[in-house]
Amino acid sequence: MLGAIAGDVIGSIYEGAGIKTKDFPLFTPQSTFTDDSVLTVAVAEWILGGRELTDLLHEYFAAYPGRGYGGAFHDWAQRQGRRPYNSFGNGAAMRVSPVGFAFDTMDEVLAWAEKSAAVTHNHPEGIRGAQATAAAIYCARQTRDKAAIRDTLELQFGYDLSRTLEEIRPDYNFDVTCQGSVPEALIAFLESSDWEDAIRNAISLGGDADTLACIAGGVAEAYYGGLPPELAGNVLARLDPRLADVVRRFRERYGLP
Length: 257
Hints:
Blueprint: H1 2-11, H2 35-49, H3 53-63, H4 71-78, H5 91-94, H6 97-102, H7 106-118, H8 124-142, H9 146-157, H10 165-168, H11 182-190, H12 195-203, H13 209-224, H14 229-236, H15 241-253
Helix pairs in contact: 1-13, 1-14, 2-3, 2-15, 7-8, 8-9, 8-13, 11-12, 11-13, 12-13
């Protein structure tokens, strides 16, 4: 889950910038956590403590205003909505990484991923994006065989993961849908050589940079066994005590490096 948060922090300054290169600074003084990290931590606390996820999403939204929430989620959280709004936005996938780390069977991962999405993103594509992201993390914990991970995800979710970044990058634009960003983020991981390379791949597509890097970063964390300590320390230093405490407790509970 820290890999997802780190991807969000690194990608935060590149969102909407249309960057098409892997050559960029990982951190600047402006690098910060966005709604991706806030809601990821909310999901982690839900798993840790058993409180209703809807209540936690409302609570975290109120505690961390102005962090780049999507319009529909902002309206839902501001009025403290209790019913989902049929979204297929990639918010379902950006916040789901704790599910992929917390459970030890694919059936559990898929069930909890659906629950994590459906409180807001109950459209089939919203559910699929969350499940595919969580399943990718689960698979990456089980095997070092990227071809097997690709085959499992394509078979289970119907995404085309055979494309290359070179094919995608030239014509790829800002896309906040699950179906238009989750496969690309997964390909960024599949083509990576290490955790940092997965983040650079995702951001270099020139799309919704923080969310693409958040999704790719969580899967890469699972596959590569964590992220470099200096990067982890840099990211943790940018979180406030509440967020950092939930991250610490989640990592301890589930034995994450």
